[in-house]
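CO-FOLDING WORKSHEET

Operator: S.A.
Ligand of interest: nicotinamide-adenine-dinucleotide
Run index: 316
Mode: holo prediction, single chain
Checklist:
[x] sequence pasted
[x] SMILES validated
[ ] output reviewed
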Amino acid sequence: MNNLTVCGGGVLGGQIAWQSAYFGKQVTVYDVTDEALDNCRAAHKLLWQVYQDEVGASPDSVAAAQNRLSYATDLAEAVASADIVIEAIPEIPEIKTEFYAALAQVLPEQTIIATNSSTLLPATFAAATGRPDKYCALHFANRIWDLNAAEIMAHAETAEATLIAVTRFAIEIGMVPVPIQKEQNGYVINSLLIPLLNAAQSLVTNGVSDPETIDRTWMIANRGLKSGPFGSIDFIGMNTAYNILSYWGNENNDAQMLANAEYVKANFLDKGHLGLQTGQGYYSYPDASFLREGFLDVPEPDQAEAIAKLTFPKKN
Ligand SMILES: NC(=O)c1ccc[n+]([C@@H]2O[C@H](COP(=O)([O-])OP(=O)(O)OC[C@H]3O[C@@H](n4cnc5c(N)ncnc54)[C@H](O)[C@@H]3O)[C@@H](O)[C@H]2O)c1
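OUTPUT RECEIVED:
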């Protein structure tokens, strides 16, 4: 499978496309607007440097990766020669269902479809794809070049040949495949991560602590972590964080989760702050405090008063 089309060129779709191109695949990024594609191109430009700095890529290899990438807003054109389509559009069931129905009209018969959904089940969308046997989940982690686990999950009608082809594809683009043995909202990673992020968000929404303090505490408790929960939320992006909190808050009738979704909307989305991708989330980038050396150090004694003030009970 050498021809990949990634549908949705946002935070994750952009990374999947770049990683695949870097590993030699011909990749088309499909998105709904030229503006979204421009954002994806800009993200790819940044990845040129990231891959050289963090992966040890040569300037020639990143230039070759870019040459294997193209960008399209016409769905039929974008998927015409795809061996595999990876869907990375918003985590909103109605949007995904509508997209699969449109895709089914134009996709070549043999093409496999994989969803990168964080928390939704392939069974939910299998019928809409029109090819349930050629459909499964292939879920990547943010910072794909570094956190290179790819979770693979079937639904009841996925063919074994599809799973073998998708597993091989994952390996070919530098991933460690993670077989999931039963459909599970959130696979392994998000079954563990989302309750953690939601718990951290509840502490902030309810005024118990602030993002920096929570991140520092978690990073001390888990020495070696590159970020705490709020650094992670910034990486994930506020759109996806909001979609997950709001969808599962409604689904589980979870008032705290819905309050957390509202907090993210009011404090970030409504202000156009999408997290790392816009340079502003819980932290300001590139100089976010949790990335600085010394973030976990014991403070100087003369900082005691300022720190203690954070402990004084809030008077409403
Ligand atoms: N952000 C993460 O850390 C992360 C990690 C793993 C998986 N995911 C999953 O990947 C998917 C995308 O998440 P994201 O964070 O990249 O979202 P995002 O909001 O950054 O990007 C979504 C992109 O999809 C485009 N889009 C919207 N409707 C579309 C349509 N009908 N057809 C094609 N493109 C469309 C948008 O223009 C946007 O560019 C979600 O299912 C999410 O759960 C996200």
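REVIEW:
The CA atoms of residues 203 and 209 lie 6 Å apart.
Residues 7-13, 30-32, 36, 88-91, 95, 99, 116-118, 139-140, 142, 236-237, 239-240 surround nicotinamide-adenine-dinucleotide (CB under 6 Å).
[x] output reviewed
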